């Protein structure tokens, strides 16, 4: 039987390395958020949510092409059932993260209700074909119930997940241990990796636990004012997916003797996973900060724009409008003539061409415009965001 203290220790012993990495992450994330125009950041956030979904699905073995994700967001679904299901799965992930990013999550993140909410919102958006799972003991198929704890037994690799009867008690201990009010600032940051592992270890739902854990970690990082819609830890985890899975499994192991903490599970394994998780976070903050640094971004965009104008795919005068969207974040449509130096009618034509290609976007037909990131320009404007050649 799995008792309430079977997943101790809940936090690793604090080491100098973990503390230093937590402090570094706080500083790097704060600096990144402060340097970027918030309106430009909102445009980047739309793209990063799609990217986060792509990498989170990739970890699960679902390789949904970014173009198919982009089409799903525009209600353009494949006629092929399997591809259409994956598109709907991707859209579900993006919509739940958008709700988290817009503070639409009811109640505390670190709570049983918060964890159930993530699973419920994700699963209720999935097609029925993806809401079926097999019990690891009797092999019988059963529907996945959105937001409801599993009633069957699960084995993931070598890990036998806790008995269904004990899930409530384990989640109670989980929320008690990771309650932000009980932890110091540094402990809260280190606890993001620890809680990520322990939630996967509990495996509260019959399916979708990996995605729930990654969305949960994203929400916790946002609550700490470290995470944002500007970067995604899922990209870092997916790029080191073998290490991610290996270290998750290693932290499942029982304590290795008297020098490995005082809990039931290995403290050494938990320290290693937390270190890896914080490293992934820090790496992704630095990667995205460098990628969207305005001068570098403008340089790549200007070269691309000149090529498009030369080929006749964009109208002359497009670059000043794109540049303004990066520098100012957004601008009134009436400014198009001033920015391009053209007469009003010609300036409107240039603006319309950019809107048609979604290089500029607007919330309303006559509202201000801001930068868009259609998938066909991502590889040139933001190289290496996706694996080479994927977009």
Summarize the structure.
The protein is mostly helical. It is 57% helix and 5% strand. The protein has two domains: 16-291, Fic-like fold; 294-381, Arc Repressor Mutant, subunit A (Orthogonal Bundle).
Derived structural class: mainly alpha
Order of helices and strands: HHHHHEEEEHHHHHHHHEHHEEH
**How many individual domains?**
2
The major β-sheet equals: 3 strands, antiparallel
User: What's the CATH architecture of the largest domain?
Assistant: Orthogonal Bundle
> Could you say what the CATH topology of the largest domain is called?
Fic-like fold
Molecular shape: globular
Give the strand line-up of the largest sheet.
Answer: 5-7-6
Radius of gyration: 23 Å
N-end to C-end Cα span: 48 Å
**DSSP E strands, number:** 7
Mean pLDDT: 94
Would you identify the CATH H-level superfamily of the largest domain?
Fido-like domain
Regions with little confidence, pLDDT below 50 for 5+ residues: none
Query: Which percent range fits the helix content?
Result: 55-70%
Number of helices: 16
Report strand %: under 5%
**Which CATH C-level class of the largest domain is it?**
Mainly Alpha
């Amino acid at each position: 039987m799995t008792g309430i203290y079977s997943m101790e220790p809940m936090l690793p012993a604090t080491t100098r390395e973990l503390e230093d990495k937590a402090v570094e992450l706080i500083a790097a994330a704060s600096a990144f958020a402060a340097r970027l125009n918030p309106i430009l950041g909102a445009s980047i956030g739309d793209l990063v949510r799609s990217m986060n979904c792509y990498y989170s699905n990739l970890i699960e073995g679902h390789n949904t092409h970014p173009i198919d994700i982009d089409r799903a967001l525009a209600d353009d679904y494949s006629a092929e059932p399997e591809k259409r299901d994956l598109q709907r799965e991707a859209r579900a992930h993006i919509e739940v993260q958008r709700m988290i990013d817009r503070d639409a999550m009811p109640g505390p993140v670190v709570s049983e209700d918060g964890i159930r909410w993530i699973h419920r919102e994700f699963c209720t958006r999935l097609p029925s074909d993806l809401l079926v799972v097999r019990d690891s003991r009797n092999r019988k198929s059963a529907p996945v119930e959105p937001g409801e704890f599993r009633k069957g037994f699960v084995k993931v690799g070598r890990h036998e997940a806790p008995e269904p009867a004990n899930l409530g008690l384990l989640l109670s201990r989980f929320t008690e241990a990771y309650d932000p009010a009980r932890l110091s600032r540094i402990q809260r940051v280190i606890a993001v990796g620890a809680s990520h592992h322990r939630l996967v270890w509990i495996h509260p739902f019959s399916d979708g636990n990996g995605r729930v854990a990654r969305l949960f970690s994203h929400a916790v990082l946002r609550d700490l004012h470290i995470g944002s819609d500007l970067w995604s830890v899922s990209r870092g985890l997916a790029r080191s997916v073998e290490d991610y899975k290996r270290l998750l499994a290693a932290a499942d192991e029982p304590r290795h003797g008297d020098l490995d903490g005082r809990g039931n599970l290995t403290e050494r394994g938990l320290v290693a996973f937390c270190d890896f998780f914080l490293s992934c976070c820090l790496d992704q903050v630095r990667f995205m900060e460098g990628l969207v640094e305005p001068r570098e971004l403008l340089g790549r965009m200007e070269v691309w724009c000149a090529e498009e104008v030369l080929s006749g795919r964009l109208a002359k005068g497009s670059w000043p409008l794109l540049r303004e969207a990066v520098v100012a974040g957004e601008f009134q449509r009436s400014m198009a003539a001033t920015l391009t130096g053209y007469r009003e009618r010609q300036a409107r034509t240039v603006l319309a061409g950019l809107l048609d290609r979604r290089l500029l976007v607007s919330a309303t037909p006559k509202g201000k415009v801001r930068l868009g990131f259609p998938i066909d320009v991502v590889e040139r404007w933001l190289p290496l965001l996706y694996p080479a050649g994927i977009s």
